[in-house]
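Tutorial, part two.
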Amino acid sequence: MARLIFLVISIGLADSANPSTIAPALYLASGEQPRMRLTQFTVGVFAVYLAGGVAIALGPGQVILSLVPHPGPTARYVLETVAGVVMLVAAGVLWLTREKLSKRDLPSPPSEGKSSALLGVTITAVELPTAFPYFAAIAAIVGSGLDPGGQLILLVVYNVCFVLPLLVITVILAVAGEEAERIIGRIRDMLQEHWPIVLAGLALVAGVFVTTLGATGLAGAGHGPVARISRRVRHLISH
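Running the prediction step on this input gives:
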């Protein structure tokens, strides 16, 4: 369970640096009733992302799992390795296209009359079909062999990590007072210029960690000195 929590947190934090959710949150933070509107937006994002993950994990995921009701350690380590490789590929694509992506304008501010919760729901529903890091994490969670309750806990942990930047912006609004608008403006300027590099870096770190986790598991499933070292590494990570 501990290794899965590390895996879920790693991918969730990397996935959280998403301009599709952070940029609208920054605009909401600069408008009228910023804390209330940002809170509504965050709830909308969290609810849809979690519901989508639950629908996949406890729907099609359980059907697939029923065909192999007791996945062995090797299968779980393979899924972890695949999840890590997905993150590494994403990091590479972001890095190679960083200049082109940084020239794109961030999403425009929503109209004042539009519900912030509905905005969060809409954005997340559109983004969900292309949420490949999330799918990789879900695959690892489903293949873990945990019961539905354990899988739900891991999905909640992932989604808390995913909305963490939105929660940080909310905290800034609560504690920064009159400085909040200036801080929010700086964050937006940085996001506009550097978000592909930041996201690529997070994806790289998460990908290396998760791939190493799966690879050491695969090596540790065998015998010999390499396997013993790998089992020792996994033991240290789990504790």
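The chain has twelve helices and no strands. In part three we will examine how such features are distributed along the chain.
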